[in-house]
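Look over this record as teaching material.
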Amino acid sequence: MVLGVVVVLATVTLAQETSVEDDEVEGCGECDSTLCDFPKNCPAGIVKDECNCCMVCGKQEFELCAHEDVPSEVFLGHCGENLECRVRDDQEEGEEPEALCMCNIEGMLCGSNGVTYDNMCQLLAANSMLEEGATAIDIQTKGPCPTAPSIMNPPENVKDESGNNIAIVCEARGFPIPAIEWTWTRVDGKTEYLPSDDTRISANMRGGPEKMQVTGWLQIMDVQKDHEGDYTCIAQNKLGMAEATSRLNVVTDSEAEKKRKRRKNRRRKNKADRE
């Protein structure tokens, strides 16, 4: 249900600010607004330039910006509507300090177009880039849009020697956050749901690595030949299901020894040919 909140485009709001400040900025000289070109297609709205004279496109979210605590040889620009220039606090020691534009209105939103936006600034930016005559994107609900699961990173095929410990990982996305389950189709064609009564196999799940994502993984301790087969990651919520399959091949000690001998013989042959 639409909340009745109509999103006002940043470009419309800021376009009304056409007055020029009388005070001169050092090094800029006298402002002549008749020489200014009015900016177009500005996702973050429009702001005054370095000299407080002409209107220019505001910096977008996560772009570098001008901050009094971060010296710069060039003017990096002002942040757009509902954005604030903040000094980064996640840099490593010794790195040059940076400031980025960050949204002042946090919280995920579901747009009337069915797209989830991380915050209001991203929804405003999407509106500003619509073609003329297109329907504006309103706020459908607060929070993410309901979404069926999708596999973001499928499990990879694994080939390892018997006796080792292995992990098979799967990442999925959706809202509500999907649950991940596993099935194992053995070499003989029989399918089992995991975890089973095999104490060497455990199934685990945690949130992340990104928003609305979940990671599931199987861990097999002391993997043996009888663990071979197809392992399927199944992500599901009330809106649907997605799955992806990987294959596990286990090399026994005798097979591994034969391969090592073949590789050693090939190296000897190649050396003899070169000589």
